[in-house]
């Protein structure tokens, strides 16, 4: 009996200890769960007020340190072959010398480099030779700078309304933004840059003093409402362009809110900020700038979406466009042929719209700003970069295959597109040689007109895919189709050039017999 008592007492102590340990574990788990729930309920702590004039991202970073830290990482991204970043962006002109012939007579023939991250957007533009050596339009700042507050200030001033810091911070004021946008689109780059530096980038509510900190690249306020933090579009070009698209008859199966608006009777204007779904907005915020547009100084910056988002739809709008003075629309006159041609910008949104990911409901942000867990909070990464730098979060959420296989698939698409670009470029340069040859032989403008039309079509399509930063990945079949058309148009132009019957002018010293003999020959260019 005496032996059993100590043994029972020992078991009791052990049971008590296990119970205490289990209780402690359960309590710790419950406390952790409670803390995480509280953290999830309050995803950020408001340290400072941000408003519609908070174009400097640093104050936003006090409230959203994780997002700001990610944004700053775009300064130091590694360079990737297709649309990445680097400390000194490689020159595309050195990598692909044919670009100099494509852009002859245009500023891109002087300086054309790979794209870098958002934090570089303004600084890179300020130092490119396209700006320092050539007179550029202020419309270029539409997407390179945090410019909505400046548009608003200029718009309010034109409307005769107060435009002090407090008034500028009082809501987005879309009508004033649109008015300012139209006012500055045709002005010089340096003039609009100076306007950026005059616009307050902060406001002390207590003292009423504005803070003027200079111009800033695209930042938080350009994609987020400072009151609700919801994503939004702020670029007037996109707001007007997406309304044109909605009012067209173009099929947009990847944009269901537009079809819903059409079905409801197309009342008023299509407003993406109030009518688009959140998933659509996760692409629209990128489509504000990663698009094709006219941004020189002969007319207001324009997105050519009135016929749809395919390359031939955009081309059709440019074909039907005239400048305010009634002149024929063009981006530049090709230096060696004299043909008026179009310059594609960076039509990522348009090409993505033709691809399988868009049809599947995958947004730009799903791949370039994938969701990630930070503590108990699910956030969209603001380290905007190539999905190939973050395959696990950007791709494997949907594609349950090894990273190496995903990378290999992308490489195949981009390598094939690169090969087609090279073939189209070769056809384009041979076309230019053929046109120059018949021009020097005395071809008339009437004879050259159909060839110039083919040149414009061929160069537009080549430039469209070469300037688009996914190298075909956003829509590989569409990219191949467009490049195939470019090659075909170049070859058609060459064939027409060689069929021109150019009669050489008779020499003053030539005898009648020589003239008669020369007319018996067929001096067509071969």
UniProtKB/TrEMBL annotation:
The chain crosses the membrane at residues 12-34. It holds the Pfam family Cytochrom_C552. Residues 503-526 are annotated as: Disordered. One of its GO terms (cellular component) is outer membrane-bounded periplasmic space. Keywords: Calcium, Heme, Iron, Membrane, Metal-binding, Oxidoreductase, Signal, Transmembrane, Transmembrane helix. The keyword Hydrolase does not apply. It is found in: Cell envelope. It catalyses: 6 Fe(III)-[cytochrome c] + NH4(+) + 2 H2O = 6 Fe(II)-[cytochrome c] + nitrite + 8 H(+). The keyword Protease does not apply. GO terms for biological process: anaerobic electron transport chain. It comes from the Bacteria. It is an enzyme of class 1 (oxidoreductase). InterPro entries: Cyt_c552 (IPR003321), Multihaem_cyt_sf (IPR036280). GO terms for molecular function: heme binding; metal ion binding; nitrite reductase (cytochrome, ammonia-forming) activity. Its EC number is 1.7.2.2. Belongs to the cytochrome c-552 family. This is nitrite reductase (cytochrome; ammonia-forming). It comes from Rhodopirellula europaea SH398.
């Amino acid at each position: 009996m005496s032996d059993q008592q100590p043994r029972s007492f020992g078991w009791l102590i052990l049971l008590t200890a296990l119970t205490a340990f289990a209780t402690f574990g359960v309590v710790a788990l419950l406390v952790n769960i409670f803390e995480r729930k509280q953290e999830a309920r309050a995803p950020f702590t408001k340290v400072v007020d941000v408003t519609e004039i908070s174009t400097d991202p640093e104050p936003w970073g006090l409230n959203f340190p994780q997002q700001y830290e990610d944004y700053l990482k775009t300064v130091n991204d590694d360079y990737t072959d297709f649309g990445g970043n680097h400390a000194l962006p490689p020159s595309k002109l050195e990598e692909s010398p044919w670009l100099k012939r494509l852009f002859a007579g245009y500023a891109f023939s002087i300086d054309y480099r790979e794209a870098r991250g958002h934090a570089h957007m303004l600084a890179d533009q300020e130092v490119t030779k396209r700006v320092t050596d050539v007179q550029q339009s202020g419309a270029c700042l539409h997407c390179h700078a945090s410019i909505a507050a400046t548009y608003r200030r200029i718009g309010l001033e034109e409307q005769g309304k107060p435009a002090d810091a407090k008034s500028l911070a009082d809501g987005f004021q879309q009508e004033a933004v649109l008015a300012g946008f139209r006012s500055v689109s045709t002005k010089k780059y340096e003039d609009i840059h100076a306007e950026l530096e005059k616009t307050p980038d902060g406001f002390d509510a207590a003292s009423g003093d504005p803070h003027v900190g200079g111009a800033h690249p695209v930042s938080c306020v350009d994609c987020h409402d400072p009151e609700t933090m919801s994503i939004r579009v702020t670029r007037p070009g996109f707001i007007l362009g997406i309304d044109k698209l909605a009012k067209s008859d173009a099929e947009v199966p990847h944009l269901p809110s537009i079809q819903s608006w059409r079905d409801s009777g197309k009342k008023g204007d299509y407003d993406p900020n109030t009518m688009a779904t959140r998933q659509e907005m996760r692409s629209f915020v990128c489509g504000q700038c990663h698009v094709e547009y006219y941004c020189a100084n002969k007319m207001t910056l324009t997105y050519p979406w009135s016929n749809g988002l395919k390359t031939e739809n955009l081309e059709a709008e440019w074909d039907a466009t005239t400048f305010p003075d009634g002149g024929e629309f063009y981006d530049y006159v090709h230096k060696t042929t004299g043909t008026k041609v179009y310059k594609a910008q960076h039509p990522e949104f348009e090409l993505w719209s033709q691809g399988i990911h868009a049809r599947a409901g995958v947004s730009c942000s799903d791949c370039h700003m994938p969701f990630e867990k930070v503590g108990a909070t699910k956030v969209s990464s603001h380290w905007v970069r190539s999905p190939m730098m973050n395959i696990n979060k950007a791709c494997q959420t949907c594609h349950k295959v090894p990273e190496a296989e995903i990378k290999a698939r992308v490489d195949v698409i981009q390598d094939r597109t690169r090969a087609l670009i090279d073939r189209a470029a070769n056809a384009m340069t041979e076309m230019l040689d053929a046109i120059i040859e018949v021009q020097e032989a005395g071809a008339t403008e009437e004879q050259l007109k159909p060839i110039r039309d083919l040149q414009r079509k061929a160069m537009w399509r080549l430039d469209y895919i070469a300037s688009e930063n996914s190298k075909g990945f956003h829509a590989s079949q569409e990219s191949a189709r467009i490049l195939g058309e470019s090659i075909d148009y170049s070859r058609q132009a060459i064939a027409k050039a060689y069929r021109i019957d150019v009669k050489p002018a008779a020499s003053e010293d030539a005898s009648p017999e020589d003239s008669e003999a020369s007319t018996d020959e067929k001096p067509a260019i071969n």
